[in-house]
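>> Question from a student workshop board

For tomorrow's exercise we were told to take the sequence and the ligand below, predict the bound structure, and bring the output to class. My setup keeps failing. Could a helper post the expected result so I can at least see what it should look like? The ligand is iron/sulfur cluster.
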Amino acid sequence: MPGNVRSTLGAPLEIRGTVLPNRIVSAPMERNYCTLDGRVTRRYVDYLRARAAGGAGLTFTESSYVTQASKARPAQMGLHRDHVIEPLAALADAVHAEGGLLGVELNHAGRVVPSSVSQLQPVAPSAVPCAEIGGEMPRAMTIGDIDDAVEAFALAARRAVDAGVDVISIHGAHGYLIAQFLSPRSNRRTDEYGEPAAFLNRVVHAVRDSVGERIPIFLRLSAFEGLPGGLDDEATIAAVARADLDQIDVIDVSAGTYGAGEWITPSGEVEEGYLAERAARYRGFGRVVCVAGRITTADAAARIVAGGAADLVAVGRALHADPEWARHAMRGSRPRPCISCNQGCADVIHRGVPLWCAVNPATGREGRSRRRGPLRADLLVVGGGLAGMEAAVTAAEAGLRVRLVERAAELGGQFALAARLRPKPQFPRLLTWYRDRLASLGVDVCLRTDQSVDEIGRSSDGIEAVIVATGGTGYVPPVPGSDRARVVEVREWLRTGAPAPGDEVIVWGGDRAAVYVADDLLAHGHRVTVVTSAPELAPEAGARERLPAVRRLTTDPGVTVHLGVSVERVDENAVICGRGDERFTVDSAALIIASHGVMPANSALGPIALPAGRVAWAGDTAGGTTIDEAIATGRSAALEVIATIEDGSDAGDPATNVRAKEEVSAR
Ligand SMILES: Cc1cc2nc3c(=O)[nH]c(=O)nc-3n(C[C@H](O)[C@H](O)[C@H](O)COP(=O)(O)O)c2cc1C
Ligand code: SF4
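>> Workshop helper replied:
Here is what the output should look like for this input. Compare the format with yours to find the bug.
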């Protein structure tokens, strides 16, 4: 298969005389890496250069605003004024130097532009707000507004071409202005622009006139919106059939809209390459077809292209997780896998902070990679959860001889427990990747080895540095009766691997772990009662991350959710609950699974007999409890130790890897 994959994905494709070196497109993704006036930054250049160097044939920037009034997010890329051209030209040079092509995506966000960003009332085809996001009331565009917007698209395209950009994409997907004209949910006009494709057609012609015949133009569309009364598959095809496609070279098929973002960046429960069959339907329009949507493996990408569903695959998050994804795909090696968690990307974009990636702390820091030669020293990593594994990988990549000791019979710690749950079907891929990577780097992995910090302190002979990543222990609030046998801490319960007894289970707590376990219990046919003092389920998780599980828990008749409720006492056959002054009883003798976070294990540094800078802390022991924090602190701990060894000094923060914690908390 690798040979076939290579020949399929590695085949060049010529469009209007521009030769795409292969079939892998780095999908447009907003990253919050630009300046407030829309210019790409050094960080942006480093990020995209890494994707081009990693083998993506065509690398897109992101949805870029064509006028100040069409800007959706403060640190978004702009094409609205000439000052953006020079930095964009530097980006184009960087991508070209790696043998890649650069594409930009032109966008007007229409009714979803927040006035807090634009300082103006948003505009839209009709005065219909985007209720799903609590959107502001837009002003219906006048003909003059429409003329101005069309001209802005044309000018923005011209600026991009002047900067040396190779490909233009027109953003007609995801609920932005062009999609708002296409959709009956937002277009109630009675003039000629009530015709869904009329605005799109004007934009297409204006952009083509502006860029000339040489430049390939992509049109990005949502194959369906995913909301009641919105465009479904048939209606979208019908709308596209009315568009003037003669000036369009590529139809780029995505899906979803505001309020149905789960179809834009689908969770790991959604089938790999889920839009392929839909994309195949666009073949009938005689254009090149590109498709996005959870393409994370080389095999899936090659199947889509070889099977003829599309000519190009647009890979978003998998390339965010590993800039060398395309090279891995061609070589048949394994990239660091995207687990479709949305934790560091889709759920971050609306927060205005720079994107990161939950599984790869180097994402967004491409310019900061270590360039010095290999090191020679012995490192002990204690703990084989995510933090410990990442620390070991980072250190071994720098040349350290690493021994990793783990108390359990398998690697992965708490993450391995979560990987068994229904809403997290992609988690095992990351475990497999770490296991393979540790093996290929020659890390000495010792399972079933219980090495306490005390023991390390007594016998640190030959060890030149230690990273402590011993995880944490779960916590059960000490209310009367919480020591009964039927109350089990969630991690302890998952560790047993035993099925829950009886029909019914009570989940005490409403954090991520509680929600995902409750959802898994539901999948196994249990009735579930969730009691949590939190005002909502999994409040610490982002909207897209938690949506699939939360939707099931809040709609399935087999689930009862008590929000804002404290457990006050656990009796043999009842749980006494309170909400303010109100008391009520959940009459049940069922198993109670408690989920209230973790407390770090081994949080005292004292006994380790190594100089301060040669000891670092990662994961729960360094305050990194989530997946992204665990991995980020693992990497930072290793970098901390590496820096100390490189400097030949023993100085450093003795208690924790402060930099990692600061970076994580700055998010
Ligand atoms: C953080 C983030 C930002 C995105 N920004 C854009 C964008 O600016 N324009 C766009 O057309 N699609 C955008 N997308 C959608 C991606 O291009 C892609 O279609 C989607 O992520 C599905 O592909 P994937 O499963 O390979 O990630 C974004 C996706 C993510 C995760
Ligand atoms: S944060 Fe999660 S979904 Fe986003 S790229 Fe990284 S692994 Fe994939």
